[in-house]
Automatic annotation (TrEMBL):
The keyword Transferase applies. Keywords: Amino-acid biosynthesis, Aromatic amino acid biosynthesis, Transferase. Its EC number is 2.5.1.54. Residues 49-341 form the DAHP synthetase I/KDSA domain. Gene3D superfamilies: Aldolase class I. Pathway: Metabolic intermediate biosynthesis; chorismate biosynthesis; chorismate from D-erythrose 4-phosphate and phosphoenolpyruvate: step 1/7. GO terms for molecular function: 3-deoxy-7-phosphoheptulonate synthase activity. It holds the Pfam family DAHP_synth_1. It comes from the Bacteria. Belongs to the class-I DAHP synthase family. It catalyses: D-erythrose 4-phosphate + phosphoenolpyruvate + H2O = 7-phospho-2-dehydro-3-deoxy-D-arabino-heptonate + phosphate. It comes from Micromonospora zhanjiangensis. This is Phospho-2-dehydro-3-deoxyheptonate aldolase.
Length: 364
């Protein structure tokens, strides 16, 4: 009888297959030298110390919703470096440099997937652009934070990242919990879009233990990953179903959930998304409310996230007109002057908390 080839039963809906560069080759082309590795490692250690409250500063992850223009993002990084140095005694500033955009339905999926902003999907070019920008930001002395969405891309960029996030849409995914258990930096787990905090608490527990799962190694070859578990995973509150969860009551309930699960009681609060009603102009109001809790001695809040870019608001991708430089094409962001004000207010709140708890042991 004639043999039925695999081509008859597989890849029936694949239009074409393009070779993917290996992580090792990209690392060779765009190396992380020793001086940049120190920035990464110092950022990781400092973030872990803030999470463990061995350092009483506030972690602030701030930057564009997603990077679509590396030149504008680097311009933003230069400004952020100055603010980070100004507030270094009170804030540990990590630049948000997100390249993968999870979509509820359809839309632009981020610089790695579509660097041309035109649906051409040149992933190899996207990976190069992403890694090049990360190295440029590190050269400024700024640690970076990324959301990890695709389970393969961390091999290409994770060596440059000091803080990572698992998003609200993927926090329930076993794949992402396994991935987090092996990543080398602290990972924030966001509550689900429907507001479920318990799901993120479950994710923290799952990522904290060893796992075995298939992946790729740095050469791009299929491999079985045996992880040790990640003790630096933590909860990120971002609101849900149009309702915020940054108020004192929500903070207390979330800390109680962590306590009941036997996990460290530490929270990062996302001032955007449902916590701001998806209105970028409300992020400073959220930050003010958080500053009041910090000044009152709330030690369970160890970090804040802000979506911020050079120009406030957002714009649509429109092939008939040029994009405005420095404005988001995904979620609306704070502008730079407003961001400077929020950072100054948060730094003042940290000083007030420190004065209220001179032993350094902020209350939970």
């Amino acid at each position: 009888m004639p043999t039925i080839g695999m081509g008859r039963t597989s890849d029936q809906r694949i239009d074409r297959i393009v070779p993917l560069t290996t992580p090792a080759l990209l690392h060779h082309e765009l190396p992380l030298d020793e001086s940049l590795a120190r920035v990464v490692l110092d950022g990781r250690r400092s973030a872990a110390r803030v999470l463990d409250r061995e350092d009483d500063r506030l972690l602030v992850v701030v930057g564009p919703c997603s990077v679509h223009d590396p030149a504008a993002a680097l311009n933003y990084a230069r400004r952020l470096r100055v603010a980070a140095a100004e507030h270094a005694d009170d804030l540990l500033v990590v630049m948000r440099v997100y390249f993968e955009k999870p979509r509820s339905t359809v839309g632009w999926k981020g610089l790695i997937n579509d660097p041309g902003l035109d649906g051409s999907g040149d992933v190899n070019a996207g990976l190069r652009a992403a890694r090049a920008l990360l190295l440029d930001v590190l050269r400024l002395g700024l640690p970076v934070g990324c959301e990890f969405l695709d389970p393969i891309t961390p091999q290409y960029i994770a060596d440059t990242v000091s803080w990572g996030a698992i998003g609200a849409r993927t926090v329930e995914s076993q794949v992402h919990r396994q991935l987090s258990s092996g990543l080398s930096m602290p990972i924030g787990m966001k509550n689900r879009p429907d507001g479920s905090v318990g799901t993120a608490v479950d994710a923290i527990r799952a990522a904290g233990v060893p796992h075995v799962f298939p992946g790729i190694d740095v050469s791009g070859a299929p491999a079985i990953m045996h992880t040790r578990g990640n003790a630096d995973c933590h909860l990120v509150l971002r609101g849900g179903r149009g309702e915020p969860n940054y108020d004192a009551g929500s903070v207390g309930r979330s800390l109680a959930l962590l306590r009941a699960a036997g996990l460290p009681e530490r929270l990062v609060i996302d001032a955007s998304h449902d916590n701001s009603g998806k209105d970028h102009r409300r992020q400073p109001l959220v930050a003010t409310a958080l500053a009041e809790q910090l000044a009152d001695g709330q030690g369970g809040i160890v970090g804040v996230m802000l979506e911020s870019f050079l120009v406030p608001g957002r714009q649509d991708l429109d092939p008939t007109r040029p994009l405005e430089y420095g404005q988001s094409i995904t979620d609306a962001c704070l502008g730079w002057p407003e961001t400077e004000g929020v950072l100054a207010d948060l730094a003042a709140a940290v000083r007030a908390r420190r004065a209220a708890t001179p032993t350094g042991a902020a209350r939970d």
